[in-house]
Amino acid sequence: MSATPWPLLLLLCLAGAAGGGVLQARAQPDSKGIYACVLNVNSKISLHAATNHQATVVCAAGFITIDCGLQGETGFVDNLTTLAFVPNKGEFTDDAGTCHNISAENITPSMGKIWYNVRSFAAGARNCYTLRSLVPGLKYLVRARFMYGNYDWLNRLPVFDLHIDVNYWHTVNISSPEAAKNVEAIVVVPDDFLQVCLINTGAGTPFISGLDLRPLKNTIYPQATKAQGLVLLARFSFGPTDRSDVIRYPDDPHDRFWFPWVNSVLWREMSTTRKVQNMNPDLFEAPPAVLRTAISPRNDIQIQFSWEPQPQPNDPYFIIMHFTELQLLQANATREFYINLNGDLWDRDAVTPAYLYSGVYYSTFASRKGQYNITINATAKSTLPPIINALEVFSVIPTTNLATDSEDGRHMDNGHTQNM
Predict the structure, then answer these.
(1) In angstroms, rounded to a whole number, what is the distance separating the alpha carbons of residues 103 and 148?
(2) 201-219 b/e with 16+ CB inside 10 Å = b?
(3) Does the model's pTM come out above 0.85?
(4) How many CA atoms within 13 Å lie on the side-chain side of 408?
(5) What is the pairing mode between strands 267-271 and 293-297?
(6) In whole angstroms, what is the distance from residue 338 CA to residue 352 CA?
(7) From residue 355, how far is each of 62, 122, 323 by CA, in Å?
(8) For an engineered disulfide with 325, which of 34, 345, 355, 359 has Cβ 3.0 to 4.6 Å away?
């Protein structure tokens, strides 16, 4: 069976400084310990619900959510997540950048409000957003969001770079006017602020639709350290049958985006309504909503998928695979399987997922290979086919002058640890 390559969805889940400005946004607890939205340290900004019904505003602890193209004093509440969005006033960026609506032909009925407009930076080689009131030494998820939407009526798709502080993060290459692109990284922040910078490389005017910041526990994603950050290549949930069924906050308290990978030709979908629990400790904390679905191969033998490294500086990869048994197996039934990377066993011991408990198989060191071909094969004594619930793949960016260790290492966490 031929390997299944990343679908086009991958492009969506990946889908200001000279002339730059400073945006300030923070979240702080009130006297009762409940986090209240503090959207602007200089003046009040009101929020309104996107419908006429009263909405519950959620300003989760430390969450910063910016609609970069939204002007004025009023933010809004997203109907699906109940998260509060901050408007991007010019005073926060020292009047650098200008806001624009995308063209009407690129707006669809199901489109989220975050995509309706952008902020572009025609002046200056480097324009930065500064996110303040952070906790030094804490780990954060930062996500930049882009939809060109032909906002400038030039129909010229730009290419530009993103930096986190002074460190290269990602090259934004817009593939079409209507394409939505999410770029995500996990970094340890050394100071009480973080800068996200758009760099003009001479291939078009940089712009941005939205910017998110989410605090994480320092115990999760141990590959993200003071020396290196993680850049998301893909985060897939296996088992949903609806391609639009993206899992995020509040189902995931860290507001990660889990995109469904659907292939009913090659895979059977599995699901349970029972409670799935995370092991303690759990180094990745995949949410139960993700772990309650899985796939198995229709040929009952092998699950296979592959990808090629992107031609960018951050091409070593960490691989994280999530496994949870969703069926209560009979005494004479066995489900166990091996994982192979490019034909080589990841570990000599077979994987046996635990019933309704999270299990994680992951790299401890980044690997650098010309091709990544993962196969999950049933063992000779297994009476049931292999399964997988979710997959995450990250590339590496240096966040200090320290070099990234490219030695290939692997680790399994399934209620116990096992060095490979």
Answers:
(1) 9
(2) eeebbbbbbbbbbbbbeee
(3) no
(4) 11
(5) antiparallel
(6) 9
(7) 34, 54, 10
(8) 355
Other C-beta atoms closer than 10 Å to the C-beta of 418 total 12
Residue 79 backbone phi and psi in degrees, to 5: -65, -40
Token readout for 386 is 């292999």
CB atoms within 10 A of CB 156: 13
Output DSSP code: residue 102. Answer: P
Nearest CA to 395 among 316, 322, 334? 316
Q: How far apart are the first and last CA of the chain?
A: 28
Residue closest to 215 by CA, chosen among 188, 242, 244, 176: 188
Residue type, 277: Q
Helix or strand (DSSP H, E) at 12: helix 10-13
Residue keyed to tokens 């991958």: 10
Q: What are phi and psi of 93, to 5 degrees?
A: -110, 20
Q: What is the pLDDT of residue 93?
A: 61
Q: What distances in angstroms separate CA 108 from CA 12, 116, 208, 244, one per listed residue?
A: 16, 10, 19, 14
* The one-letter amino acid at 311: P
Chain CA centroid to CA 420, Å: 27
Tokens of 26: 């923070």
Q: Please report which helix (H) or strand (E) contains residue 256, including its range.
A: none
157 SS3 class: coil
91: DSSP letter: G
* Cα dihedral 311, 409, 15, 353 sign: positive
Q: For residue 59, what pLDDT is reported?
A: 53
- Mean pLDDT, contiguous 10-residue spans, the chain (420 residues): 44 31 34 32 33 42 90 87 84 73 93 94 92 93 97 96 94 94 96 93 96 96 94 95 92 97 94 94 95 95 85 75 97 96 91 96 85 93 97 91 33 34
Q: What is the token pair recorded at 288?
A: 């139960």
Q: How far apart are CA 228 and CA 363, in angstroms?
A: 15
Q: Which two tokens stand for residue 171?
A: 């090259």
| Distance of alpha carbon 244 from alpha carbon 259, whole angstroms | 8
Q: How far apart are CA 87 and CA 111, in angstroms?
A: 18
* 84 neighbors 65 (Cβ within 8 angstroms): yes
At which residue do the structure tokens 């116990």 appear?
Answer: 416
